[in-house]
Design a protein that fits this description.
globular; mainly alpha; single chain
Length: 449
């Protein structure tokens, strides 16, 4: 378990390093915000397609070989990403952007190994401990998204570029290439460690189990509550991915923030999410229940997502002290963004955890894995379409439009959650997902938390 946690954490660390890099890297090749958003979306598209492929291969060939191959593919992808300019010049400078897309597609395909990692957890844990094991996997994700942007920001900083550029003058070192090569190096080290210490788990497979799981999942999807939750998860993921994909374009256009400055903001956002998910959601769920937390989280995002671009614009008027190389007006705008981003991150954390917990409670024990797989697929599909449409709105209409639209999309999420409340409470019996208690009055439940 500890080895798998380390492997997944470092894998997500490499991914997180490039979050503040990707949009501005695309702009450096002459792309506009729409094309840059497509570069963001292509990862989720290939992850959506290849996650079940890697999962089936791990059933047939073993978990360990699939994890090792995916880590090798990620190392190659991040290396290609960092050298896109040089590789593109071999066939014409404009083709550097093509190399970026190919590298992101390969990284997304290899990123489908999360299905294999989840299957590995199921192999090595008894059913009663499986939720805890999957929770540790989720913690590895969260930590990767907290520390990844921070490392990316350090790698893109002026001192780091000067030091590394002096040591390896034969490689072009920029704020885009160095974080990419750092991600490749970390993933290569991760591959070496996994090859030595990650064993193949003992697995037992029963004939015909796949058909029974599919049949059970189809039956579960016919229940109004689970179907409503999957749609809610899709819309929420769509809206938030629209915000995420345009945030760095916004700060670059309005505040002239580069990779390092954006990495600092993203790290702060990730820390807030981690604190809420790791320390606050549990006690809040025990007191108020998953349903109320999901509603509150969605409501907060309705209000805060649309305020993000205006906070950045209005904050420019307030000049504070110069901090960490920022101009006084940039410091004021950063503070304004942080004031909006804090409740936004809080609401996002509440919504994500609560919706997942409600999915767990709405599916039977036999369909838990299938239900979560369905929500993950819905999320990947949403993160494919959301950035593309948001980029079109940003480039084609105005910088503030995708953020306002993203906030408004949480209104139908609230409507769907109200419908869920009616479906469950009106169904006559069973657990109420509204207040986290059973109809028999057994007290608070923890669901999938």
């Amino acid at each position: 378990m500890a080895t798998l946690f380390l492997v997944v954490f470092v894998d997500l660390l490499g991914f997180g390093i490039l979050i503040p890099v990707i949009p501005l890297y695309a702009l450096s090749f002459g792309a506009n915000e729409f094309v840059g958003s497509l570069l963001i979306a292509v990862y989720s598209l290939f992850q959506f397609v290849f996650a079940p492929v890697l999962g089936r291969l791990s059933d047939e060939r073993g978990r360990r070989p699939v994890i090792l191959v995916s880590l090798f593919g990620s190392t190659l992808a991040w290396t290609l990403f960092g050298l896109a300019g040089e590789l593109g010049s071999l066939v014409g400078a404009a083709n550097g952007l093509v190399v970026l897309f190919l590298a992101r597609a390969l990284a997304g395909a290899m990123g489908g190994n999360i299905a294999t990692a989840q299957a590995y957890i199921a192999d090595i844990t008894p059913p009663e401990d499986r939720a805890r094991g999957l929770g540790l996997l989720g913690a590895a994700f969260g930590l990767g998204f907290v520390f990844g942007p921070a490392i990316g920001g350090l790698a893109a900083s002026g001192p780091a570029l000067d030091v590394v550029g002096g040591v390896v003058p034969w490689i072009p070192i920029t704020e885009f290439t160095l974080p990419s090569l750092v991600a490749a190096a970390l993933t290569a080290g991760n591959l070496a460690v996994a090859a030595v210490v990650l064993p193949e788990p003992n697995r037992t497979r029963s004939a015909g189990s796949e058909e029974s799981r599919v049949a059970a999942l189809v039956g579960a999807l016919r229940t109004p509550a689970l179907g409503t939750l999957v749609v809610s998860f899709f819309v929420a993921s769509f809206a938030f991915s629209a915000f995420e994909s345009q945030f760095i374009f916004l700060t670059n256009d309005l505040l002239t923030f580069g990779t390092a400055e954006n990495a600092l903001l993203l790290t702060y956002f990730g820390v807030v999410v981690a604190v809420v998910q790791g320390g606050l959601v549990g006690p809040l769920t025990d007191r108020f229940g998953e349903y109320r937390l999901a509603v509150v989280g969605a409501g907060v995002q309705v209000l805060t997502l649309g305020l993000v671009p205006f906070a950045a614009a209005w904050g420019r008027r307030f000049e504070l002290v110069a901090v960490a190389g920022l101009e006084p007006w940039q410091t004021g705008a950063s503070l304004a963004l942080a004031l909006v981003a804090t409740p936004l991150a809080f609401g996002n954390a509440l919504t994500n955890v609560s919706l997942n917990a409600l999915v767990s409670r709405s599916a039977s024990d036999e369909t838990q894995g299938g239900a979560f797989g369905l929500t993950q697929s819905a999320g990947s599909l949403a993160r494919t379409v959301g950035p593309a449409l948001a980029g079109a709105l940003y480039a084609g209409i105005a910088f503030w439009v995708p953020f306002v639209v993203a906030g408004l999309l949480f209104v139908p999420v609230l409507v769907l959650l109200r419908r869920l409340d009616g479906d469950v409470l009106g169904g006559g019996g069973g657990e109420s997902v509204r207040d986290g208690t059973t109809d028999a009055g057994e007290g608070p439940t923890t669901g999938g938390r």
